[in-house]
Every structure is written in structure tokens, then in C-alpha cells.
Amino acid sequence: MVWTPLHAKIHRTIRSRHLFERNQRLLIAVSGGQDSLCLIKLLLDLQSKWGWYLGIAHCDHRWRSDSQANANHVENLAKTWGISFYLETANEPINSEATARDWRYQALSAIAQANNYQYIVTGHTASDRAETLLYNLIRGTGADGLQALTWQRPLTTGIMLVRPLLEITRTQTEQFCQEFKLPIWEDSTNQDLQYARNRIRQELIPYLRENFNPQVESALAQTAELLQAEVEYLEKAAQQLREKAMSWSTCTEQSRSIGDEKDSLTRLLPLRLNRRVLQKAPLALQRRVMRQVLQQILTDAPSFEHIEKLTALVVAPNRSQTDPFPGGAIAQVEGDWICFK
Questions:
Q1: What is the bridge-based pairing of β-strands 25-29 and 119-121?
Q2: 133-143 burial: b if 16+ Cβ within 10 Å, else e
Q3: What are 68-122's pLDDT values in tens digits?
Q4: Average pLDDT of the chain to the nearest whole number
Q5: What is the dihedral of CA 200, 203, 208, 214, to 10 degrees?
Q6: Nearest to 177 by CA among 282, 326, 34, 332
Q7: Beta-sheet pairing, 159-162 with 119-121
Q8: Whole-model pTM?
Q9: Residue 62 — left, alpha, or beta (φ > 0 → left; ψ -120 to 50 → alpha)?
């Protein structure tokens, strides 16, 4: 086996970040593109040092005419390497990026659960991280959206999603594939500029690289890495503040003004927040507390407007209230308390 600097880097990353344990079962998501081929080759070469059992999973979205040939190509690679292969094919073509991503993770989770894999491993790179940061920034987001692809996160019970290549750029994975003559399957949809992410990849990143920073992908990925640690810290601090400020006691008029149907709903709500506790905290933590509260109440993710109108009650006059949130709940100031009804 040829041991390259990239092998050494990934070996150190896995060990220092505790991404995997020894002798674990890893399910590698392989599309056939350069990033996933680079990933599987690296993990195959490191396998003897870690004692992993590796499997390959391929998800056929059926949105290209050559998707079945693509799946056959990946299956043949798995056979060549002597690795278990799993294929999941969509019942009908998936044309939305978001829908495809959700379906893909559900499919990978089902394969992992059925075959006792503890980890699902994807080939997301620093380039993907940079593109995701820009994509979310353009759409409008806070630090949570800008942290853009974490190293690992629980995908479902007992299964962790891991991304070992987040410090590697797409240029590096291409060079690696060329060095080892890995047979890349070119995905024609990556060139389709109707997708916003492709425009960022094909047009915006090259423009930024040429006119602002030749290392823009690595710089943006480092920004996402810094933000990830800060978001984790702020979320924990906000959780501690929320637990200190929250009371499950009923507000004064609530029991008289709500009917049985609403009463069953409000028993699920954090009924009161102490404004005096919240007023001592920085605005950033106040907003995060309100977002955490709304995440418990609302079926969909709270918007910036939802968070702002609730945060405004921290210093609002007595009897101030919000208009109804989706689902009908409102928040009202009663003295030192913000009450949910």
C-alpha cells in the first residue's frame, strides 16, 4: 500500500477527533464520484490499522438516465474490493435536492439498522462545507446555519453520521483519485446550473478564488469549524438559562381563559419564563432561549420573526402579547413572567 500525506492526515483526524472506534462496522455512502471514491480508498487502506468492517451503500435517485449504470459501476467496485454492497433505489424519480437528501439519509439509516452498522460515513469535503456556508448565508441564517456540516451527528438511534474529509478540498480528492487511477463516475447533474448549489460551485467559488482568496474554500471551512464550537457553547449556555428561567406553574388568567382542548395543548408548553432572569442575559442568549422554547411548541422550525417577537417580551410593558404563533399559542407578559397560552 502506498502511504500518502492524505492517508496520514485522515488517520490523524479520525484518531484526534475520535470519529470512529476500532473494530467497528462502517457503512460508506458511495455515489461513484471523486469524493466518495477517495473516501472509500482511504478507509480501505486504513482498515488494517483499525480493524473495521466496511460496507458500501449506493442510493439511486433515478433522476438521471444513466443512474442504473452508475449503480452497477459502484457494485462492481465493491465486488473488486471484496466489500458488502447495498443498493437502495427510489420508487419514483426524485428531483428536489432537499427531498433527495432526506430520502438518502432515511435509506442509509435503514440499511445500517438492518445490517448492524454503527456508523454511516459520507465523503463531504471542505469544499462542500464552504458551499453550504455560502448557500445558507445567501438565504439568510444565523451562526447555526453557517456552521455548515458537522464532523459527526446522531442520525438515528445507535447510528452516527460521520464526515472524515471536512479538512480536504475537492481539488485534493481529485488529485488522489488520479494518483490511484480510481474510476470516477461523472454525475452530469453536477453541471446543471438550475441548482443553486451548482451555481455556487461552478461560478461563485471560482470567482471568489480568482478575485479574493485562492484558498477561499479552506478559509470558509475554517470559519464553519470555528462557528461549530461557538454554537455548541451557546446552545449549552442557553439551555442552562432556559432551565433557570422556566417554570411549569400556571399563569394567573390561563386556567380561567382556556378550554379543555387548549388546556391539553398548554400542558405541553413551558408555561412561564421569568423575565428578571432573562433580562440579565445577553441578547444572543435570550434569542437562543426563545428559539429553544419555540422548537418545543411549533411543529416547524421557528422563523427569525417568531424568535424576535417573543424576545421583545423580555423588556415589553405589562400585558404586552404576541399575535398567535402557528398552531394558535400566544405569549403574554404578566408582571415578571412571560406566559404561554
A1: parallel
A2: bbbbeeeeebe
A3: 899 999 999 999 999 999 999 888 877 677 788 888 999 999 999 999 999 999 9
A4: 89
A5: 100
A6: 34
A7: parallel
A8: 0.84
A9: left
Count of residues in the chain: 341
Transcribe 134-198 into DSSP letters.
HHHHHH---HHHHT-S-SEEEEETTEEEE-TTTTS-HHHHHHHHHHTT------GGGG-TTSHHH
DSSP-based helix, strand, coil % in the chain, nearest 5: 55, 15, 35
CB 30 within 8 A of CB 73: no
Q: What is the pLDDT of residues 134-169, one digit of tens each?
A: 999 998 888 888 887 899 999 988 999 999 999 999
H helix or E strand, kind and range, residue 339 = strand 337-340
The amino acid present at 174, given as its one-letter code, is E
| Helix, coil or strand: residue 333 | strand
Q: How far apart are CA 185 and CA 69, in angstroms?
A: 10
What is the enclosing helix (H) or strand (E) of 33?
A: none
Q: What grid cell was written down for 216? A: 477561499
